[in-house]
Design brief:
This protein has six helices and eight strands; from the N terminus they run αββββαβααβαββα. With 204 residues, it is α+β, with helices and mostly antiparallel strands. The two termini are 28 Å apart. Bound molecules: zinc ion (ZN).
Length: 204
């Protein structure tokens, strides 16, 4: 079993190598719940390629710094709010990935259009109305529209995915980005039909 820090850094590297994040202002953020009260947070201004045990931060659930090794990402506001409201969440990934962000700019949620969304996303991927990033209003919008699911789009911003562990969270992020690309292509060539009565569907 890998140490949580190794897994955290490996997940950050996978996000970068898969093209889900880029350097600089388009980086997003990633966090992991070490225990009930401690959160490992990616820093601001440092490439995921360069993440190490020497430049990650640890905060408690109230936002107090426990280990301060690098510039703080202000995204911790919504990461901590999600951890406070969702005890099942152990990892959070926020990206500005290309296709998911295109849907955010067009203010389009992803309705339930593929069976895989039930497993990977917990249903549809709703879109949270715009609020100033890292404000109380923004946190409320995220919590309301994430609900009990695993992914939410943020209008005019990007994507947030949550998971029971880092691997699960990464897979959801990868899935939603690919789904967003397919959905945008499908919309450009015709109508996209929602799967009806999905709550009654049991496909294993
Ligand atoms: Zn962002």
């Amino acid at each position: 079993m890998k140490d949580h820090l190794d897994m955290f850094i490996e997940t950050a590297h996978r996000l970068k190598s898969s093209g889900l994040v880029s350097d600089g202002v388009n980086k997003g953020s990633i966090s992991y719940r070490i225990d009930d009260d401690h959160i490992l947070m990616s820093p601001s201004k440092i490439s995921y390629d360069d993440l190490s045990e020497n430049n990650t931060n640890i905060m408690n659930i109230n936002g107090d710094l426990v280990e301060h090794n690098a510039p703080i990402s202000r995204d911790y506001y919504f990461h901590l709010e999600i951890y406070r409201k969702r005890s099942d969440v152990k990892a959070i990934i926020h990206t500005h990935s290309k296709y998911a962000t295109a849907l955010c700019l067009a203010n389009k949620k992803i309705p339930f259009i593929l069976y895989g969304m039930k497993f990977h996303c917990g249903g549809e991927v709703d879109i949270a109305p715009f609020a100033f990033p890292n404000s109380t209003e923004c946190n409320k919008s995220i919590i309301d529209h994430l609900a009990d699911r695993k992914a939410v789009l943020l209008q005019n911003h990007g994507l947030i995915c949550v998971g029971e562990d880092l691997i699960n969270c990464f897979e959801t992020t990868e899935f939603v980005e690919a789904l967003s690309e397919s959905y945008i292509h499908a919309l450009s060539i015709g109508s996209v039909y929602e799967i009806e009565k999905w709550k009654e569907v049991n496909y294993g």
